[in-house]
Design goal:
Layout: H1 3-27, H2 34-37, H3 39-43, H4 64-71, H5 74-81, H6 83-115, H7 143-178, E1 187-191, H8 203-213, E2 218-226, E3 235-240, H9 243-250, E4 262-265, H10 284-313, H11 315-321, H12 334-340, H13 342-351, H14 354-363, H15 370-402, H16 413-418, H17 420-423, H18 425-445, H19 447-456, H20 475-495, H21 500-520, H22 533-557, H23 561-584, H24 594-603, H25 608-619, E5 641-643
Parallel strand pairs: 2-5
Antiparallel strand pairs: 1-3, 1-4, 2-3
Helix pairs in contact: 1-12, 1-18, 4-21, 5-6, 6-7, 6-20, 6-21, 7-20, 7-22, 7-23, 9-24, 10-13, 10-15, 13-18, 14-15, 15-20, 18-21, 20-22, 22-23
């Protein structure tokens, strides 16, 4: 791709983003669109003021919503939307800080260094290569400057990550303390309950077991029954007398056979996936292995359109393989649009369906909560994007570059491969523009829902009251897509620093858009108290490791083996830091320490925990079951829960 293609993509995407944001600022001020742009606030019965007078000002674009987004505090997001939502916003803030720092180093040091070298590239090379490390001659001592910047960026990323991990961990502990009256704090999910030898039922065995082995902690239980059967579910929710008792029981092996009496802290009642509780625990490994195989197959087949996109981006190769493509040159400016704008749009279109597919796959893996399912889907989407958007785009583009050259001039293969990664920088710039500027703008405008709402209320729903389009926040879509841009930005921070300003704009716009969406649009359907952060941390560490491995190879291909060797200890430090975080921080995100649980219990002196405990079992009544069938008694004997398996 040449500079004209990049400028065409930038112009189209920036123009579209401005138009879309202007339309959004107009549409959100119309009372008839309140169900689209303020569903969360309407569901909370918050008042929203509209100018209903028919004036010209009402239809003028306004960007006051951007100022409003920047004035929303973290405490406000935490109290109204929860820590999971705040983690997403802090992820965008992390990106702004980190890439602003990288941008300063890249534009002030690396970019002038790359451009100051007399170009040794051939006339067939991409015009953007003069701004990248490809312009540095092989064996040049200037590569030590790139190594120094690599070290600075790596340690800056690790420092910011470590600081963020500590902050989120403290907020998680405090959030759990604030939610100490929730039923999930007192309740443990028990699976693989064995049959009672005497009565041949699961229910009495639960009561006998916990009465005997947790006599002072056990309070009550609810066994789950299949909706179409009178027996076949070895699953129960067991309530304990305090948070401390529940934390101890959930983290303790209950039986010599670890596949019996399997305990974990119960998810929030609103977070439970009731139908998955009926799945036999011993079959879960098979389900999840099947999901893994399906994910790999889907990833392999998706490599075809990614390779095709790279073929569109490389017009000179496309012209040789597909002669009719020469017709593109007959229309002035069309080639720039085709090679600069079209590939990233096509790729974005293909990727649109990926989160839905992955969430569907995660849905059959047998997770007992929506949050676990969505976290799994988020990781699946991330690795899919890393494989297909990043690696396949680089590898397929590099392969296309080598066809017809490698066999003619074998000695030039190392130098051409050295520039292969940097040659993809222009494509990723256009991808950031199309998925960032245009993508975020479409996220906030909601054109699909806007069209559907207009169609519905001008046809079959005419005259009826409008319903709110209230949806949960799509963590499985937002987090992995932002993470892949982190990988692109970190890997190219040393190779092609001209890409970094695009990343800063990307994270700034994302911060504004999703702050607005969390405040006005999306509802909070569950709260994991920040369990998404370890996934985000892992994604960023993976990005830093990929950057370092790439630079080890690139320094070698640039005939600077000493710089490659010097990068290896940096890679070791990063991996060691990641292992340290797994030991120091990660366990606290998936287990509640007995100290925190005890401290939470000691805060309750007004009897609020007693009330919450009494309501705990009733809170875990399946939505399809009448309340009268799940009445809890003071004794440990309770009515069974009927679980629908449909």
């Amino acid at each position: 791709m040449n500079a004209e293609g990049l400028l065409a993509s930038a112009g189209i995407n920036i123009g579209l983003a401005i138009i879309i944001l202007c339309l959004f600022s107009i549409f959100r001020n119309q009372h008839s669109n309140a169900n689209l742009y303020y569903p969360r606030r309407l569901s909370l019965n918050q008042s929203i003021s509209f100018d209903r007078s028919f004036t010209f000002r009402r239809f003028l674009p306004s960007f006051d919503w951007i100022n409003e987004a920047f004035t929303v505090s973290e405490d406000d997001i935490l109290s109204k939307c929860g820590l999971d939502a705040l983690v997403v916003i802090r992820f965008f803030k992390f990106g702004i800080k980190f890439f602003a720092l990288c941008c300063g180093v890249g534009l002030m040091i690396l970019l002038p260094l790359n451009c100051s070298v007399s170009s040794h590239l051939s006339s067939t090379s991409r015009s953007m290569d003069s701004f990248t490390i490809s312009n540095i001659p092989r064996g040049s001592d200037r590569l030590w400057v790139h190594f120094s910047c690599l070290c600075f960026i790596s340690f800056s990323g690790i420092y910011l990550l470590h600081k963020e991990y500590k902050t989120v961990l403290l907020k998680r502990v405090q959030q759990l303390r604030n939610l100490r009256h929730q039923p999930s704090q007192f309740t443990v999910l028990v699976r693989q309950v064995p049959l009672c030898d005497e009565h041949k039922t699961f229910s009495c065995n639960v009561d006998h077991f916990f009465s005997k082995y947790h006599p002072h902690a056990y309070h009550s239980y609810q066994i789950l029954y299949g909706g179409n059967h009178v027996e076949e579910l070895p699953v129960a929710f067991v309530t304990f007398r305090s948070c401390w008792d529940a934390a101890l029981a959930s983290q303790t092996q209950q039986h010599p056979n670890p596949l019996l009496w399997i305990t974990q802290m119960a998810p929030e009642p609103r977070d439970v996936l009731w139908k998955n509780l009926s799945l036999p625990y011993k079959h879960l490994l098979v389900y999840r292995f099947g999901v893994l195989i399906a994910e790999i197959i889907f990833c392999i087949f998706f490599a075809i359109p990614v390779s095709a996109v790279q073929g569109i981006a490389q017009y000179e190769k496309l012209k040789k393989w597909f002669p009719p493509a020469v017709a593109v040159q007959l229309i002035p400016g069309l080639r720039s649009v085709v090679t600069g704008y079209l590939p990233s749009v096509v790729l974005s279109g293909f990727l649109y369906v990926v989160p839905f597919v992955m969430k569907g796959m995660a849905g059959v893996a047998g997770y007992v909560s929506i949050s676990e399912q969505e976290q799994k889907a988020s990781n699946m989407v991330f690795y899919f994007l890393m494989a297909n958007v990043f690696f396949m785009s680089v590898l397929s583009g590099s392969l296309l570059d080598q066809i017809g050259k490698s066999f003619n001039n074998p000695r030039d293969v190392p130098s051409r491969l050295a520039g292969a990664v940097s040659a993809r920088a222009d494509f990723f710039m256009t991808y950031i523009l199309s998925s960032g500027l245009a993508g975020f703008s479409l996220e906030i405008l909601q054109p699909g829902l806007l069209t559907w709402d207009a169609l519905k209320h001008h046809t079959w729903a005419r005259g009826k009251k409008k319903s709110n389009y209230l949806a949960s926040f799509p963590y499985h879509r937002v987090i992995p897509f932002v993470s892949i841009f982190v990988i692109i930005g970190i890997v190219y921070s040393v190779i092609a620093p001209l890409l970094l300003p695009f990343l800063v704009v990307y994270f700034l716009l994302g911060y504004v858009v999703y702050t607005n969406q969390l405040h006005d649009v999306y509802e909070t359907t569950y709260e994991t108290c920040g369990q998404y952060w370890p996934h985000i941390h892992h994604h960023v560490v993976v990005a830093i490791i990929i950057m370092q491995i790439t630079m080890i190879g690139l320094f070698g291909l640039k005939s600077k083996p000493s710089a490659s060797i010097a990068t290896i200890p940096l890679l070791v430090v990063t991996i060691a830091y990641n292992e340290y975080c797994k030991i120091r921080f990660l366990p606290t995100f998936y287990k509640c320490s007995v100290q925190d649980a005890k401290d939470s219990d000691e805060l309750d002196k007004d009897g609020a925990s007693d009330i919450a405990r009494e309501k705990a079992i009733d809170a875990y009544r399946p939505p399809s079951m009448p309340r009268a069938c799940a009445t809890m008694e003071e004794s440990t004997s309770t009515q069974p829960l009927l679980l629908t398996t449909s």
